[in-house]
């Protein structure tokens, strides 16, 4: 089968690999689509010696069951399915507490990222993928190709929003930074499911325009004036919540400079931004809660699927042939993508 392989630093190639054998508790999924995440760009920037060199990428995967293992109950040939981001064990204390995105087996302390398809396990940018049934969720009538990004681009903002949902009441202000693959979904989730006033930012004018027409109360270009604009918009109080879906130095700085007293910041983007904590400084207001937010739980994923089924969330997708993977990676790196690219085998 054809599969997109990380072959060396910043380079992917479509290679011929064997169709995977399935174990008794697995299904063989015929991949309908695999989303291209900005994290895939971070992964392939890992050099020529990364442990992931040689592996098949793709952690946002959906498809149709082609074959079932002998003990694979609950799934029939022809069913559409979404593959969970984190290949959680289902049995550790975290999993049993419903925090499977922090599964102790899939995500040991110090790991680069939890075990996922395409991150430590074969990914879905391929014609076929073997998946354990307990890592599959039904898609019903949704188109599996364009639903692939629900496994991360929708799951991850859903989790970040759910973690601050009690703060997002009428009268509160949320600042959401980055209107890309994750951010354009996060904006819609905020708009559809919370009562907060939304200030959305991106450096790209087209994305700012998208935000203005998709639920943002205020849409701003993310530039040197952004912090003072946000402070004006909040009458000097600062924001109740900041969601950073970029994580570069300017956005990390912006998040910290506009968060209000007792506010919450969710750092989702992995753009290399840094901050230092000064225990004896008023630069960070009292009571601020900061989380390095990873992916989401299976429950977050089901909520995202339900929002799409209810017509309250639409992931913007552009289909590229799997054979055009190298061009897709270049286009994402060059900022030419709106919404999410889905690679179709
Ligand atoms: P994307 O390329 O689709 O979107 C990034 C967006 O950020 C673009 O719209 C771009 O114009 C905008 N941007 C760039 N610089 C900006 C700035 N200074 N201010 C405001 N906007 C700016 O990327 P994506 O797939 O949405 O991923 C976003 C980030 O989240 C990446 O770093 C990715 O690795 C990370 N990520 C994290 C998790 C997690 O679980 N923590 C999951 C998925 C992705
Ligand atoms: Zn991702
Ligand atoms: Zn677990």
From TrEMBL:
<dbReference type="GO" id="GO:0004022">
    <property type="term" value="F:alcohol dehydrogenase (NAD+) activity"/>
</dbReference>
<comment type="similarity">
    <text>Belongs to the zinc-containing alcohol dehydrogenase family.</text>
</comment>
<dbReference type="InterPro" id="IPR050129">
    <property type="entry name" value="Zn_alcohol_dh"/>
</dbReference>
<keyword id="KW-0479">Metal-binding</keyword>
<dbReference type="InterPro" id="IPR002328">
    <property type="entry name" value="ADH_Zn_CS"/>
</dbReference>
<dbReference type="InterPro" id="IPR020843">
    <property type="entry name" value="ER"/>
</dbReference>
<dbReference type="Pfam" id="PF00107">
    <property type="entry name" value="ADH_zinc_N"/>
</dbReference>
<dbReference type="InterPro" id="IPR011032">
    <property type="entry name" value="GroES-like_sf"/>
</dbReference>
<feature type="domain" description="Enoyl reductase (ER)">
    <location>
        <begin position="8"/>
        <end position="343"/>
    </location>
</feature>
<keyword id="KW-0862">Zinc</keyword>
<dbReference type="GO" id="GO:0008270">
    <property type="term" value="F:zinc ion binding"/>
</dbReference>
<protein>
    <submittedName>
        <fullName>Oxidoreductase</fullName>
        <ecNumber>1.1.1.1</ecNumber>
    </submittedName>
</protein>
<dbReference type="Pfam" id="PF08240">
    <property type="entry name" value="ADH_N"/>
</dbReference>
<keyword id="KW-0560">Oxidoreductase</keyword>
<dbReference type="InterPro" id="IPR013149">
    <property type="entry name" value="ADH-like_C"/>
</dbReference>
<dbReference type="InterPro" id="IPR036291">
    <property type="entry name" value="NAD(P)-bd_dom_sf"/>
</dbReference>
<dbReference type="InterPro" id="IPR013154">
    <property type="entry name" value="ADH-like_N"/>
</dbReference>
């Amino acid at each position: 089968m054809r599969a997109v392989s990380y072959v060396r630093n910043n380079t992917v190639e479509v290679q011929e690999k064997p169709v995977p054998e399935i174990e008794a508790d697995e299904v063989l999924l015929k991949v309908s689509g695999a989303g291209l995440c900005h994290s895939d760009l971070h992964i392939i920037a890992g050099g020529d010696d990364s442990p992931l060199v040689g592996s098949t990428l793709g952690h946002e995967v959906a498809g149709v069951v082609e074959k079932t293992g002998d003990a694979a109950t609950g799934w029939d040939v022809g069913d559409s399915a979404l593959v969970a981001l984190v290949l959680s064990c289902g049995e550790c204390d975290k999993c049993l507490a419903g925090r499977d995105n922090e599964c102790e087996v899939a995500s040991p302390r110090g790991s680069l990222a939890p075990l996922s398809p395409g991150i430590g396990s074969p990914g879905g940018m391929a014609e076929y993928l073997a998946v354990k049934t307990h890592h599959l969720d039904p898609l019903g009538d949704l188109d599996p190709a364009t639903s692939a990004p629900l496994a991360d681009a929708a799951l991850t903002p859903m989790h970040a929003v759910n973690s601050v949902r009690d703060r997002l009441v009428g009268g509160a202000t949320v600042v959401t930074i980055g209107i890309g693959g994750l951010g354009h979904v996060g904006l819609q989730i905020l708009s559809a499911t919370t009562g907060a006033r939304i200030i959305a930012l991106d450096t790209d004018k087209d994305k700012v325009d998208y935000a203005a027409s998709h639920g943002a109360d205020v849409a701003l270009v993310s530039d040197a004036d952004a912090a003072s604009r946000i402070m004006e918009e909040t009458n000097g109080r600062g924001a109740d919540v900041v969601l950073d879906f970029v994580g570069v130095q300017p956005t990390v700085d912006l998040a910290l400079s506009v968060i209000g007293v007792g506010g919450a910041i969710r750092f989702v983007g992995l753009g290399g931004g840094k901050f230092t904590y000064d225990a004896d400084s008023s630069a960070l207001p009292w009571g601020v809660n900061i989380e390095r937010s990873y992916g989401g739980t299976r429950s977050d994923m089901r909520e995202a699927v339900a929002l799409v089924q209810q017509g309250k969330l639409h992931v913007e997708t552009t289909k590229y042939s799997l054979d055009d993977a190298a061009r897709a990676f270049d286009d994402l790196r060059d900022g030419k993508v709106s919404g999410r690219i889905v690679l179709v085998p």
